[in-house]
């Protein structure tokens, strides 16, 4: 799975670098449009277009029948039953393309979080770094040692929470950073990449040890040391402004991708 994560991240990083000169919204809109076109192509290739076209005509005929025979209860009831059956048939036909697109879309959205969900740590503001220790951790033992880059300060000793096996540090970046935090414990080391500053960057999420959790937390390789389950930096949420309004990146992505698919369906010859 790490290879798949690396491939997806590499492709997205190329797009990110190419549009790094422009506002965050530009790259997201282009990615969403391309995704909408790709989804449309998959829908056309994996769906039964002839059957879907027939079902759509049946729905249109049922709606027309309801309008014409609005004063005929028996005919209206028959038309309503036909509409329900046609809609259920359409959903069944659309299920196969949806299943084909579900996994790729989920992976894409997970990876896009590093570009549009999280923002780098603000300068001169404290941030929290947390490590969950493995089950054999002894809370009374000395905690891991955190080594930071030269432009990141550690604010006080680590705080241990025995019930959740977590150790937390407060750090303070005072100049732009794109470097690793290093943790040492029992002659072992593990690192976590951090980003700080006001420039748009690729911001990785939680670094994990579990193979399955790595699917939901791409961006860095799995933890190989045997003393930590995961390491997380508490990043602020990235802001996406559209006409002066705060908009969640995922909402904008879905709106643009669906709009692109609807605008291109005739050109692709796809029935939706």
Question: Could you describe the 3D structure shown?
Answer:
The protein is α+β, with helices and mostly antiparallel strands. It has two domains: 2-117 and 245-268, no CATH class; 127-233, no CATH class. It has six helices and eleven strands. Strands 1, 3, 4, 5, 8 and 9 form a six-stranded antiparallel sheet that branches. Strands 2-6-7 form a three-stranded antiparallel sheet, with no helix packed on it. α2 crosses α4 and α3 packs across α4 (73-116). The longest helix is centred in the middle third of the chain and has 44 residues, at 73-116. The chain is elongated and about 80 Å long.
Concise structural overview:
The protein is α+β, with helices and mostly antiparallel strands. The protein has helices at residues 2-18, 24-46, 49-68, 73-116, 213-216, 249-268, and strands at residues 127-133, 145-147, 152-154, 159-161, 166-173, 177-185, 188-196, 207-208, 228-233, 241-242, 245-246. The chain contains six helices and eleven strands.
Domains counted in the coordinates: how many? 2
Number of strands: 11
Silhouette? elongated
Count of runs of 4 or more consecutive helical residues: 6
| Helical fraction | 40-55%
Structural class assignment? alpha+beta
Beta percentage is 15-25%
Distance between the termini: 33 Å
Provide the low-confidence segments as ranges.
Answer: none
